[in-house]
Structure formats: C-alpha cells, structure tokens
Specification:
The chain is α/β, with parallel strands linked by helices. Helix content is 31%, strand content 26%. A hairpin with a 2-residue loop joins strand 8 and strand 9. The longest helix has 20 residues. The protein starts with 5 loop residues before the first strand and ends in a 39-residue tail after the last helix.
Length: 407
C-alpha cells in the first residue's frame, strides 16, 4: 500500500494548521476547510506548556510567540463583597520563559501565516457529507464542491461536526464537569494593565483580565451547575439570560459585566467538559486536538495537547506507509499523555473556582500566606510525552502539490 498523499483537515484554529504544516513537510497535499470566513482573531489567552513548547520551537515559531507572551504582572483575588483577599505580584521572568501564555488569535495567526502559502485553505465552507470508500473518502462541501481524499482529519474542536459524522453523536463522548462559562470582551472599567482580577463566591467566579494596555479587557463569568443547561447551549439569547439570572444581585463589577455581556458581539458560552473516546481513528479518518480529547479549560492544557497531537499524528503518518499502522502509532503514543493531562481537571477547578465555602476559605488562606504569585509549576503531565524525532517529516520536494477537490 502506498502512503496516502491527499489529506482534508476540517478546522483551522490550532491543531488544524499545525497538522497541515507538518504534513506538508512530509510531502502530503493538504486542504484545510474552515467554516469561519477567515482565521479567527481575538480570544482569551491560552497556555503553551511542557512538550508543546518544543513543538513550536521545531516549527520555528518560538521567537514570534515569545514576543506575544502576555503573562500578567499581578493577580488580585476578591471576596463576594469585592474586598481584596490577596494581591500578588508576578515574579519577573529571568531570560526566556519556560512556558508561554498568548492570545489565542495571535497563535492562530502565527500558525496560519506559517503554512498559508503551502496548503490550500477553504474559508467560509464546511463539509456536509462524508462517504468512506475503499479508495478514500468522498467529501461533499456545503458550498457545492466535491472531492476525494486519502485521509480526513477532524480538527474542529470540542463540538466537532467531523466527529459527529464519522464517530457518532457528541453525547457518547462528552463528559460534563459541572461548570458553565461565558467569555467576552468589554471596556476596561479600572485601567487594568497586564493583570488579572478574580472575584469568587462559592460556586461562582468572575474575572477581568487585561493582557495589554488597550481599552478593552477579557471578561469571564463561570458558575457551578450540576446538570448542563442543554436548552441554552445553542441559543445566545438564552445564554445571556441564564448568566444574568445566576449573577443577579451580586456586587463588585458584576452588574457592569452582565450588561456588557448582553451587548457583546464576541460572546462565547459553553460548558466545561472533556472528550473521552476509546479510539480517535476509524478507517481513513482521525481526530486531533479538542475534537479527539479536549481536557477542558480547567486543566489549561487544551492548546498544548492540540499542538503536540498534531505533531505526533503527522510524524506517524510520515513514518508508516500504511495509514492504519500510522493511526495505531498515534494512538499508542498520545493516549498516556492525554490521560495524564485530563486528570489535572480536579486541581484546576479547586484552585480557581471552589464550589463550597470551606474549599474557598482554604484557597484564600493559602493565598494570604503568599507575598507573590508562585512560579509556574511544571507538572509531570505537561512533559509526559516524548516527541518522536523530526526525521520522518523532511522538507517537501518541489513537486509536492496542494490537494484540489475533484468537481
């Protein structure tokens, strides 16, 4: 069996363009389809930690992403009345940071810029039907195009349409973790500059995060809920009403945040959850990033898993002529790393969003004992993956071509 040459990737956020870069280097012809009309800017800051920092170094992106590093200079923690529990300065970076925190849009732009001239991007479209066949996967796009690809990769996030079409409904794989959250931008109410202010009451939290000295900050509202609000998940108006009800009567900046949320054009509402699947591959299809194994924002590792998984999958496909062997190698190498990082969820939730009064008191007592933010702690899970060497992904030959859908 010859190595597959054409690959369709659905999703152009993080894992999609990262995978496209490595596959192109290995000589594959790659098409990336994305339902948004252009690379998505903005977004809340994300972390690149541990093994993933080596991935971006191998991509040559470390200098650019280092310049985009936005770690806060101070974090202030408030109680339910808006009183300061602790205000902790960040320790100064000494040389290159070990890990990075950058705006999601900055990362997406860097990844797209790295590969946009080498692979075909189809923005403003999506897949309406997959028809797996012995010779490949026949694909019909919503815009009317049709094509046949050797492999199809879903890199389209937690609520992956590719996963639903090829692996079954999301309910089989999504594990709700008891929190809902809303992200949006709003005018800076207090002249914040590179700092985080976090308000807590048991089961609820609100944050303002200024990543620079601009006129807007990131707003974040989260709350504990035993069952997911299914009716609100696809209805932005219902989402706004739900958040307003949950935070009604709260003090500090909450009323202004809720008012801003009602008008926000960039509201992102979702539940905290993990994707847990027995397999991420089937036939000629595979999943990568959050579509395969979202760990939830409570771990802070979603972006790192996406970057690392894209690298491992591409290396496996480059090293094995048979895609079934490549998919098996991808699963074997990534599974322990994903499991270790998904297990971080309890630690993340307890630290930032305590659900009970006792847990919040314990957290606040620990904060009061500090004189500065503790240095970022490298957890074993962050580096629980040994990357294969880059030998399997040589630079593409001059004869490599883009994958073009067959009409």
């Amino acid at each position: 069996m010859t190595s597959p040459r054409t690959v369709l990737i659905s999703g152009a956020s993080v894992s999609g363009p990262a995978l496209a870069y490595w596959l192109h280097r290995a000589g594959f012809a790659v098409t990336v389809v994305e339902k948004a009309g252009a690379p998505r800017g903005g977004g809340y800051p994300v972390d690149i930690r541990g093994t993933a920092t080596e991935v971006v170094r191998r991509m040559g992106l470390w200098p650019r992403l280092r310049q985009a590093h936005v770690a806060p200079r101070r974090a202030t923690f408030l109680d339910a009345a808006g009183r300061t529990v602790a205000s902790l300065r960040a320790r100064a970076d000494e040389g290159d940071p070990r890990d990075l925190e950058i705006r999601r849009g900055d990362l997406a732009d860097a990844l797209h810029g790295l590969v946009r001239d080498d692979v075909e991007f189809v923005f403003g479209d999506s897949v309406s039907a997959f028809d797996p066949a012995a010779h490949g996967v026949d694909v019909t796009f919503r815009g009317g195009r049709q094509g046949t690809y050797d492999l199809v990769i879903g890199a389209d996030g937690v609520h992956s349409a590719t996963r639903a079409a090829l692996f079954g409904p999301e309910d089989r794989y999504h594990h709700y973790l008891g929190h809902c959250f809303a992200l949006f931008t709003l005018p800076d109410p207090a002249g914040l500059d590179r700092e985080l202010v976090l308000w807590n009451t048991p089961g609820k939290a609100a944050a303002l995060y200024a990543t620079g000295d601009g006129a807007e900050v990131h707003g974040f509202l989260t709350f504990h809920r035993p069952e997911p609000p299914r009716a609100a998940l696809r209805d932005p108006d219902a989402q706004r009403e739900l958040v307003a009800q949950v935070f009604a009567g709260e003090g500090w900046e909450i009323p202004r945040m809720v008012a801003a949320l009602r008008e926000a054009g960039d509201l992102f509402f979702d539940t905290a959850g993990q994707i847990r699947m027995p397999r991420w591959t089937s036939g000629r299809a595979a999943l990568v990033g959050d579509a395969a194994h979202a760990p939830s924002f409570l771990t802070g590792q979603g972006t790192s898993l996406a970057l690392s998984g894209a690298y491992v999958l591409a290396q496996a496909l480059a090293a094995h002529r048979d895609h079934t062997a490549a998919f098996a190698a991808y699963e074997d190498r990534m599974r322990p790393y994903v499991t270790a990082n998904q297990a971080l969820v309890d630690e993340g939730g307890a630290t930032l969003f305590p659900v009970t009064a006792h847990a919040l008191e314990q957290r606040d007592a620990r904060l009061r004992a500090l004189d500065a933010l503790p240095p970022a702690r490298s957890r074993p899970a962050h580096t629980a993956l040994t990357l294969p060497h880059d030998d399997g992904c040589p630079a593409p030959s001059s004869g490599a071509t883009r994958a073009r859908p067959v009409r």
